[in-house]
Q: What sequence folds into this?
């Protein structure tokens, strides 16, 4: 909680009165994310008036927290020299991401005004494949040489600290920049000042490859409770770090992608990371029509299935009336199972070796659900819809069968997808209800024929 | 990547040969999560043999990383005095969680052997409401008094460091333990040794209330890029911290819960945090049957809708054959929209003020999808299924209408749920397809009557 929140009207007043000192004092103590939020509520000119009074280093931090569209707008409307000064102080991953999305000419104008090393750093970071460790890593970390003493290392960190996002961990590299160790600041504080870094550093380090999938990087950060993970190239040279806060954002995007996939929107490496408003309508249509057409194709089998049993209608016309209810219930039970399995797989609670146990469990759950709903459906058809006990029994038994069947394939299909190395979330709720539709029709009329005709029940 | 991974058979050999020194040396450099993983692959006796050779502090860390079931099993089979020694070194949140799940008598036996302060700490942490900041926070953090000098503060931290999970941030509290500031270790290193803590500490701090929902705590950690967030009681007294790695786990559970809800499994505060295998089958049935019954009730309206239009069948019996295809497609389009909206809401990209823009956008997407699929469906009915152009037109137009309708309610319903303060993910894919089913039937036959009868088309 921030005490003493300044409201937008108050802010406007201070800006108009040109009260730079008051503004600076107020914002000096606020978290940059909070300042960014307030700026976002103001128009561009007012926002810039606030940014101008801030200390340049704070300003750079605040800009990183602005909505990405606003960052672009801001930099595009800033003189190249001022933009370069801003980029110089921004965190390395944020500025690379920003430059990547600028108009090319404008980006060149700005880059020309930066020091060679910084220009190269931005170009390199911006060049990695989206979705890899390289594309999300930053390069502002502290490195130490293994031969330094603890005292020398601390002196070096003291000098560098103002330019580093964090010095809580220092990475130890040899003369070829090969990563050979890790030293937490805590360990430096505790060690004898004359000890050598190579004697106190941790040598077993969890690392990520620069071309490693970002999801796998996040999994490592989560599993090993890391604040940051060092990223190395194929020759073990340290090229960057991915920090826990960036991992957090990646996790949020990746996991909500599962919801999208589960809803039946196909994934698209280009567009998955796009915020809702940045994606174009046509891109949304493209990602959805693919699945809808495939499902249309699969649903099309309901037509021959129904036609095949059309003759049953002659004696029992009421059967069709229950069809959407039965198919709908089957699809619902199947969606529930898929959701349960996808979650278990995503959390790593269900693994390959659980295959048959999961099947048995879900099938049993399907049996219990089907038994309860079957009794409900029997009573519903008999007492509420006035059908004969025989027809009502067909309805009840179909519900039982369809629930067991839907649960079985709802568990089977995502687990098979997982075994094949696919994302299990591509087995969407729509896919399962579609699968249940065609097979459910066959099940329904088969039970009807068996009970009503073979056994001459009425 | 860990170099030189020791394989399970090698491990077994070392254990059987009683090579304690070799085991200890190997594991000394490994990440505790990695050691825990290897122990998990061994049986209980073998695992214990490894734990025994480890340094007690490392052992406590490794135990925290074991599967929770295994932790329980381990502690239950350990003599109370040894279990107490283990708990003494474990991180405070992990041990409180462990004690909470132990058999009560056994827990008492262990607690009796701990120092009074530790016992109280465990009891207090275990007493908070599940799902709140209190239930996920830990109490092993460093505090400083505001009047200390930087040199005194560093000396104090050096002494305490071995017992603290982290000293990267120290919390400044007054004599009543009221939280008044925050000092990063980095700042202590940079400051003059004679400066006072109160002069260098950050005073504006983002905090969480002890009864705050864990999801809200996680959102703060993510928004402000925090490594840890301090937790205060109603009188602003510091009572704990929630660390970024715990926030990570919470985020994973919460977001995958959305998948469950979206699949149509109702949420259950008692069971949501239960791993797949810990939940009982009956609890799974209970969470699912509720929704299935409600959806059954809603689907039941398809019956009167179909009966109402039964007479249309007389002249155009082929219409029924297309019914599952049309309803299925509508449900699929609706599920996609719900998935898209839930994701946008979860990421905060869609907010209240976007209400009408989202509706317009999704409705337009529905129009485009419906137009494409409508043409496909028209050709399909006409050319592949040999229907008359008029009947084919009914099919095509129904697809168009049903897609627009499904997209509209697929966007509308989760946004209304969000406005009402409900979790938008309760608007599951099954709920939307069910809504589309009953209304889709009415739409279908209305178009058929209009085109085929009113306009006397054949």
A:
């Amino acid at each position: 909680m921030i005490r003493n929140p300044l409201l937008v009207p108050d802010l406007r007043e201070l800006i108009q009165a040109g009260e730079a000192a008051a503004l600076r004092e107020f914002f000096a103590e606020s978290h940059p994310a909070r300042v960014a939020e307030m700026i976002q509520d103001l128009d561009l000119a007012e926002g810039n008036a606030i940014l101008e009074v801030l200390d340049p280093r704070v300003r750079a931090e605040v800009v990183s927290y602005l909505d990405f569209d606003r960052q672009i707008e801001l930099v595009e409307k800033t003189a190249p020299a001022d933009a370069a000064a801003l980029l110089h102080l921004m965190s390395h991953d944020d500025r690379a991401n920003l430059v990547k999305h600028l108009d090319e000419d404008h980006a060149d104008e700005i880059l020309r005004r930066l020091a060679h090393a910084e220009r190269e750093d931005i170009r390199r970071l911006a060049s990695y494949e989206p979705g890899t460790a390289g594309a999300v890593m930053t390069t502002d970390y502290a490195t130490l040489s293994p031969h330094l003493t603890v005292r020398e290392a601390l002196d070096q960190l003291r000098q560098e600290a103002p330019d580093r996002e964090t010095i809580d961990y220092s990475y130890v590299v040899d003369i070829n920049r090969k990563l050979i160790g890790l030293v937490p600041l805590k360990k430096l504080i505790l060690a004898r000042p004359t000890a050598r870094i190579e004697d106190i550093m941790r040598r077993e380090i969890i690392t990520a490859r620069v071309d490693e999938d970002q999801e796998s990087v996040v999994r490592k950060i989560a599993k090993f409770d890391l604040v940051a993970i060092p990223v190395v190239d194929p020759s073990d040279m340290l090229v960057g770090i991915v920090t826990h806060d960036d991992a957090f954002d990646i996790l949020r995007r990746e996991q909500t992608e599962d919801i999208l996939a589960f809803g039946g929107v196909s994934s698209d490496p280009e567009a998955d990371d796009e915020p809702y408003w940045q994606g174009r309508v046509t891109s949304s249509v493209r990602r959805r029509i693919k699945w809808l057409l495939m499902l249309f194709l699969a649903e099309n089998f309901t037509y021959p299935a129904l036609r095949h049993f059309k003759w049953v209608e002659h004696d029992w016309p009421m059967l069709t009336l229950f069809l959407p209810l039965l198919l709908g219930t089957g699809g619902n039970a199947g969606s529930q199972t898929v959701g349960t399995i996808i979650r278990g797989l995503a959390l790593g609670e269900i693994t390959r070796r659980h295959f048959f146990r999961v099947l048995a469990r879900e099938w049993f759950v399907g049996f219990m659900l089907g038994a309860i709903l079957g009794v409900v459906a029997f009573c519903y058809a008999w007492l509420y819809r006035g059908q004969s006990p025989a027809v009502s029994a067909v309805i009840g038994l179909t519900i039982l069968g369809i629930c067991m069947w839907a649960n079985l394939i709802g568990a089977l299909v995502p687990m098979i997808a997982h075994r094949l190395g696919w994302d299990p979330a591509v087995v969407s709720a729509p896919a399962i209800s579609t699968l249940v539709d065609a097979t459910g029709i066959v099940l329904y009329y088969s039970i009807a024929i068996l009970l009503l005709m073979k056994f001459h029940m009425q």
Notes: Chain A has three domains: 8-128, 142-244, 300-454.
